[in-house]
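Long-time lurker, first post. I've been practising inverse folding by hand and with some scripts of my own, and I keep getting stuck on stretches where the structure tokens seem ambiguous. Below is the full token string for one chain I'm working on. Before anyone asks, I'm not after the true native sequence, just a reasonable design that respects the backbone. If someone could post their per-position residues I'd love to compare against what I wrote down in my notebook.
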């Protein structure tokens, strides 16, 4: 750890995103001519770590890569962003994780994710870094590595009094109860909230709540998740509508302070990860929920006005936010 500033530890995924652009997506058996090709660093864990580091927080990344060029370049990317890579694991048995993404001219995509080394990180490996986890202020996890590995990290953090954030994405079948029991802050978007609470008609802030058919507000749906799953609190990201925090005894809704014009929204890829990485930073610095959500809204809002995921992430110098 850097000095005695407690930082953020991310236990999660790293991917290389290989993005091919074309007019129309190829059908099975068809070859189409592409219009462009780009390679990005991705993976939800990586994105969240990069955003936290760009806001000046000490960040430790725990992830597994292959012994290949993608792995080497990913480690360099972490280092370039000031992230501690001492606990980045490598294996020569499988390649680094990749996402093969095809995007057509209307913005529709088809994605194949090959988890590779992400799928090979074990609970035993997490147990060997127990001390590193317990010396952190906040742990962030997602669901792009094996579930038992994530549970193992959350459990160690909870036992050591480290604040735990779980981004419930992608939602998987057969999610175990322990995922929720060791989670202080469950971060979901509207779709994930709906799936988890079983409420399909969620009334968003500012919508008329006298709907026939018994719709439930975001707060009510989140309360149901707390009750059903046993997490301590839920944060729901609502895109242009802002975000909501709900715990057993309080809730607050923070809308975007500065509305972003539709024409300025260029690329929402990785905006949720930007929100989570920055939320962890503000909470680790002891900011209130209202201020933390407001600031995280701003950081994520900055990212949607630029291309790419990590490429669009703000440094603290880009924003008027007091850290």
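-- Answer (accepted) --
I ran through it position by position. Result:
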């Amino acid at each position: 750890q850097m000095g005695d500033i407690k930082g953020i530890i991310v236990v999660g995924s790293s991917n290389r995103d290989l993005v091919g652009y074309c007019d129309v997506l190829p059908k099975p058996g068809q070859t189409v001519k592409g219009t462009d090709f780009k390679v990005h660093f991705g993976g939800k864990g990586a994105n969240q770590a990069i955003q936290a580091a760009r806001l000046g927080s000490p960040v430790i990344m725990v992830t597994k890569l292959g012994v290949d060029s993608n792995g080497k370049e990913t480690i360099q990317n972490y280092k370039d962003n000031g992230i501690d890579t001492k606990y980045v694991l490598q294996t020569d048995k499988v390649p680094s994780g990749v996402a093969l993404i095809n995007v057509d001219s209307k913005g529709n995509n088809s994605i194949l994710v090959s988890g590779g080394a992400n799928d090979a990180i074990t609970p035993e490996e997490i147990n060997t870094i127990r001390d590193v986890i317990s010396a952190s202020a906040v742990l962030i996890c997602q669901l792009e590595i094996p579930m038992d590995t994530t549970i193992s990290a959350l459990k160690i953090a909870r036992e050591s009094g480290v604040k735990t954030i779980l981004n419930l994405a992608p939602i998987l079948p057969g999610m175990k109860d322990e995922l929720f029991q060791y989670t202080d802050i469950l971060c979901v978007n509207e779709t994930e909230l709906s799936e988890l609470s079983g409420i399909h008609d969620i009334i968003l802030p500012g919508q008329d709540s006298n709907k026939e058919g018994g719709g439930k507000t975001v707060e009510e749906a989140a309360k149901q998740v707390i009750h059903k799953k046993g997490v301590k609190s839920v944060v729901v990201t609502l895109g242009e509508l802002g975000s909501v925090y709900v715990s057993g005894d309080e809730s607050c809704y923070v809308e975007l302070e500065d509305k972003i014009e539709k024409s300025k929204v260029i690329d929402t890829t990785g905006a949720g990860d930007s929100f989570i990485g920055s939320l962890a930073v503000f909470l680790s610095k002891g900011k209130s929920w209202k201020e933390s959500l407001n600031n995280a809204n701003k950081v994520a809002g900055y990212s949607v006005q630029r291309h790419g995921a990590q490429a669009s992430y703000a440094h603290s110098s880009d924003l008027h936010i007091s850290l």
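A couple of notes from the structure itself: The first strand starts at residue 8 and ends at 11. The two ends are 19 Å apart (CA to CA). Happy to go over any region you disagree with.
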